[in-house]
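Sanity check. The docking grid for coenzyme A depends on where the pocket ends up, so I'm generating a full predicted complex first rather than guessing from homology. Inputs follow.
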Amino acid sequence: MTGRPRIVIRPACPSDHGGLRVLASELAYGPLLSRYGSDPHKLGDELCQLCTPPAGSATPTESLLVAVVDAQHHGPAAPAAAPPSSTPVTPAPAPLLGFARYAQSGMFGSLGGYLKLIAIAASHTGQGTGSRLLAAVEDAVRIHSRDLFLLASHFNDGAHRFYGRHGYQEVGRLPDYVRTEITELIFWKRLRPK
Ligand SMILES: CC(C)(COP(=O)(O)OP(=O)(O)OC[C@H]1O[C@@H](n2cnc3c(N)ncnc32)[C@H](O)[C@@H]1OP(=O)(O)O)[C@@H](O)C(=O)NCCC(=O)NCCS
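Predicted complex below; grid placement will be based on this.
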């Protein structure tokens, strides 16, 4: 295998549980969510629940997309010893590099979707994966809603640049909304014409 691995963006599924819990833990103790007192187990549980779509025809209230290394480029798990040719080789779970959690509608009436959280593993930021995840969320939300909204903490300068570069405008502020002494900036993007 040569060059950079190919990254796939797809809906989360139960085989992502392990990777989601690892990333949830990294995030909960990281510079953003630690300021919210985030619980890694609770976040991991919430993300894992979103890997299983609701039964029947019920519309999910939230959805989860993940960015993973393409299984074909990732290859099989290395066996401890060379197996006999009849032994099946179990593929290792593809490394999970990031996720985006969103609601396709219901924000500010029926016209808005909501990006609840997008995150990339710290070892993988700045390589375009967050941009690809955000574009995939926009494509999914555009089917149901005209606009996409999100909140970003006042201190998260990197995220402000990220959203600004992708066409989001800051349209308001919510002081002490989630936590005291943290102001949430409301970002908005029109995804399609009226
Ligand atoms: C914000 C985030 C999702 C962007 O994903 P990404 O894969 O790093 O983004 P891309 O590679 O597509 O684009 C890079 C841009 O992201 C922004 N960015 C934000 N945090 C960054 C970080 N820790 N490292 C690198 N870029 C970051 C910058 O604007 C950067 O552009 P710049 O190099 O011109 O400054 C990601 O950095 C992340 O997970 N951050 C921590 C969690 C977070 O803040 N989520 C947003 C909550 S509102």
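Relevant for the grid: Residues 100 and 118 are 4 Å apart (CA to CA).
Also worth noting: The domain at 7-75+94-190 is CATH 3.40.630.30 (Aminopeptidase).
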